[in-house]
Write a structure and sequence with these properties.
The protein is α/β, with parallel strands linked by helices and 124 residues long. It has 2 helices and 8 strands; from the N terminus they run E-H-E-E-E-E-H-E-E-E.
């Protein structure tokens, strides 16, 4: 149902390597790369992509309270790797990888602009 999501950044050149590293672990690359906007995913694929953009209105990018992007992993080890990759590329931990209830495994982190993401796996 979701085609793609975008997150705001105030410094695209600084933020892009963070998403390049996460995308590489997920097996995708940049599918669009323009001045002020980069998107990662597979062109024409039904899976959702993620974009990083400077706000079109020219105002500073801000973090949405309660907004989070969830990256679906193939196994627990990939959840752990994605969380570690995020931290190694300047992200901050919002909750280490681990079980959340009986059927959900996730690790939470923020990107360099403070946007909240997680890597997750439905286990049940």
């Amino acid at each position: 149902m979701i085609g793609y999501v975008t997150l705001g950044t105030n410094d695209l050149a600084r933020a892009a390597p963070f998403y390049d590293a996460l995308a590489a672990e997920l097996g995708v690359g940049r599918m669009m790369d323009y001045d002020g906007f980069i998107a990662w995913g597979i062109p024409g694929d039904a899976a959702a992509g993620i974009g990083l953009t400077k706000p079109h209105d020219g105002n500073p990018a801000t973090v949405g309270n309660g907004v989070m992007v969830a990256l679906q992993a193939k196994d627990r080890e990939q959840v752990d790797r994605l969380h570690a990759i995020a931290l190694a590329h300047g992200g901050t931990c919002e909750g280490p990888p681990g079980p959340r209830g009986d059927s959900f495994y996730a690790g939470y982190f923020r990107d360099l602009d403070g946007n909240k993401l997680n890597a997750f796996l439905m286990t049940g």
